[in-house]
C-alpha cells in the first residue's frame, strides 16, 4: 500500500498549518533533542524539522518523537535510504531540498508524507502534475525571495508553499503575507549557542515570538 501524492500533500499541509514557523534544526548532540523539542513545542511551534546533516540526526528524531504535542519531521531527505531510515526513526513527515522520482516513490511506498522542494515554476509544475500541492520553496531568498514566490503563485494558485532558506524575523512577514504561503521554515528559533548552553527558556521565548508571526494568536 502506498500513500498517494494527494493524501501526502493533505497530511503535510496539516503539519505546516500548525504554526507559522517550522523550526529547521541541525542537532549535533542527540542528548539535547528532547529538551529542545519540549521548549519549541511549549513555545507554540509543534511541527519540527530535524535535518539529516549530522551523525546524531536520526537518534534526535527518535528522542523528539516521544515529546507530547510535537510532530517531528526529517529534513534533507535525498535518497530512498534516507526515507527508510527517517521512517524507522519515527519521523512523521519528510522534507527535501528538491525532488527526484526515486525519492517521491520511496516516500509514497513508506507512507511518509513529503514536503518536496521546488525553486522554479517548472519544478513546481512537475510536482503538481504528480499530485503534490504543498511544496517547499527552496532556497527562498537565493531564488528571488517573496517577490519571486508571489510571481510563481500567480499562474499556479493550486500550490501552497513553505519557503525555507534565508528566512529570518526581518523578512518572515514578507512571505507569510502571501496568499500561497502557509508557513515558513526558519533556523533562528534554535541558535546553536543556546542549544549548547541548554538555554531552553530562551529558545521557548524565541518560539513564542515566532508563533506570533503572520497574525497568529
Question: Can you walk through the features of this model?
Answer:
42% of the residues lie in helices and 15% in strands. It is of the alpha/beta class and 217 residues long. Strands 5-4-3-2-1-9 form a six-stranded parallel beta sheet, sandwiched between helices. It has a three-stranded parallel beta sheet with strand order 6-7-8. Helix 6 (121-130) links the parallel strand 6 and strand 7. The chain is globular. The mean pLDDT is 97. Homotrimer.
CATH class descriptor name: Alpha Beta
Number of strands: 9
- Give the overall form: globular
User: What is the helix content?
Assistant: 40-55%
Kindly name the structural category: alpha/beta
- Give the DSSP E fraction (strand runs of 2 or more residues): 15-25%
- Describe the main β-sheet briefly: 6 strands, parallel
Tally of DSSP helical segments: 10
CATH architecture: Alpha-Beta Barrel
Find the CATH superfamily: Aldolase class I
* H/E element sequence: HEHEHEHEHEEHEHEHEHH
Amino acid at each position: 500500500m502506498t500513500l498517494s501524492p494527494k493524501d501526502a500533500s493533505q497530511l503535510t499541509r496539516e503539519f505546516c498549518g500548525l504554526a507559522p514557523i517550522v523550526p529547521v534544526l541541525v542537532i549535533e548532540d542527540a542528548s539535547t533533542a528532547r529538551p529542545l523539542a519540549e521548549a519549541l513545542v511549549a513555545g507554540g511551534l509543534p511541527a519540527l524539522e530535524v535535518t539529516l546533516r549530522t551523525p546524531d540526526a536520526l537518534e534526535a528524531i527518535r528522542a523528539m518523537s516521544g515529546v507530547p504535542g510535537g510532530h517531528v519531521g526529517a529534513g534533507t531527505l535525498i535518497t530512498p535510504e534516507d526515507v527508510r531510515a527517517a521512517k524507522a526513526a519515527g519521523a512523521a513527515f519528510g522534507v527535501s531540498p528538491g525532488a527526484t522520482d526515486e525519492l517521491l516513490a520511496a516516500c509514497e511506498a513508506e507512507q511518509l508524507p513529503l514536503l518536496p522542494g521546488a525553486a522554479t515554476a517548472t519544478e513546481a509544475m512537475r510536482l503538481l502534475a504528480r499530485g503534490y500541492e504543498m511544496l517547499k520553496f527552496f532556497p527562498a531568498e537565493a531564488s528571488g525571495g517573496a517577490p519571486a514566490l508571489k510571481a510563481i503563485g500567480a499562474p499556479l494558485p493550486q500550490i501552497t508553499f513553505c519557503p525555507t532558506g534565508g528566512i529570518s524575523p526581518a523578512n518572515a512577514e514578507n512571505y507569510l503575507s502571501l496568499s500561497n504561503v502557509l508557513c515558513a521554515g526558519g533556523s533562528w528559533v534554535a541558535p546553536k549557542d543556546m542549544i549548547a548552553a541548554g538555554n531552553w527558556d530562551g529558545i521557548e521565548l524565541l518560539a513564542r515570538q515566532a508563533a506570533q508571526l503572520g497574525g497568529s494568536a
